Amino acid sequence: MKKFTQLRRMFRSYQNYRSRKSRNVSLPIRLWVEPSSVCNLSCVMCLNKDIAKSEKGFMDFDVFKKIIDEASYFVCDVNLFHRGESLLHPEIFEMIKYAKDKGLSTRLNTNATLLDKERSYQIFESGLDFLSFSFDGYEKKIYENIRRGADFNETLDNILRFLTIKRQLHKNSPYTTFTVIEFPNGSTGEMRKDIKKQFIKKFDSLPLNQFVSRAPHNWAGGYNNNNKILNKSFLPCTFPWYSLTIFWDGRVVPCPQDFFGKLTLGNVKDSSLLDIWNGPKEIFLREKLSRREYKDIMPCNRCDRLWRRKLFGVPMVELGRFLKDNLVGYNRSIRKILR
Question: Does residue 136 contact residue 180 with C-beta atoms inside 8 Å?
Fold first, then answer.
């Protein structure tokens, strides 16, 4: 019944998107909630290092509870991560449990540098549904050049230990993915393929559900800004019709690509999610995107998501994972290795 309700909500959101409805839009089905904007790394492609120290912090647990209490009536799942490392938040496992107790599916992304044995067990105890490891590079030199502040061997050992514990506990949850952003550097051609193949073999016999490799996106022009985006034809972005992103301090933006809060819609500390969702700023954004009037909207006018090839409004490179997450579900006996 829960899956049917979720599919029905997805269909309504898609109908609103296809009709370009801007007012009284069906309620959001997904949230990005940022427990922490603080990170312990300084990755070359990440804009976290450009956030002012005064704008970094941890979400207050009472603010988090307000968000979840409101969202539990209409949201299907919540991503408990955004610009920082969520495992730095001292109450992250209580947050997961609270959202789970309210009936929400929970998702977490981590760089795994802090994933010691104790935190590994806490993840299983929390009931987390989906866990993604961000690990960029198959070689020590490449990885440490990209993920500055991280140690290749130590972080990989953390992940392998977590998966070993998962196997020992006979756990299906969390559904676990390993994501590598492939940059055009390091080994090339057949050598690169061989290095990647040898790296993937490290996970043989371990309960890793999915291995994903993909190209980097441009964080709405913040990373690798490309003026060629302007004047390209596009379908409107789906984010304003199905989700909201909430920063640690309560500010709400339309999508997770808005790294610096250029399009702040309101603040959950003094407004409800519903008022923000169908408020004047969100309505204005939907209307502008529907008319393809994006050149004066920051950061949409520099975002590569607008012009990526899409099906049903979802970028093709993400469609497989999107459908599997929402139609098939997480914890099925599917092991998909993307090569």
Answer: yes
* Spatial separation of the C-alpha atoms in residues 243 and 229, rounded to whole Å: 24
| Residues 322 and 308 sit within 8 Å (Cβ to Cβ) | no
**Residues with Cβ within 8 Å of residue 80, at least 6 apart in sequence:** 33, 35, 86, 92, 95, 96, 99, 106, 107, 108
Average pLDDT estimate for 74-78: 94
Pick 338 or 301 by higher pLDDT. 301
Q: Kindly list the domain boundaries of the chain, sorted by start residue.
A: 2-337
pLDDT of residue 331: 42
Question: Which CA distances in Å does 316 have to 101, 133, 214, 307, 320?
Answer: 34, 22, 12, 11, 8
Q: 12-16, 34-38, 79-83, 160-164: lowest mean pLDDT where?
A: 12-16
Q: According to the CATH classification, is domain 2-337 in 3.20.20.70?
A: yes
Give per-residue pLDDT as tens, 88-111: 999 999 999 999 999 999 999 999
Backbone angles phi, psi at 119, to 5 degrees: -65, -35
Mean pLDDT to the nearest integer, 211-233:
57
CA end-to-end distance (rounded Å), the chain? 35
Global pTM reads: 0.87
**Which residue matches tokens 């549904």?**
129
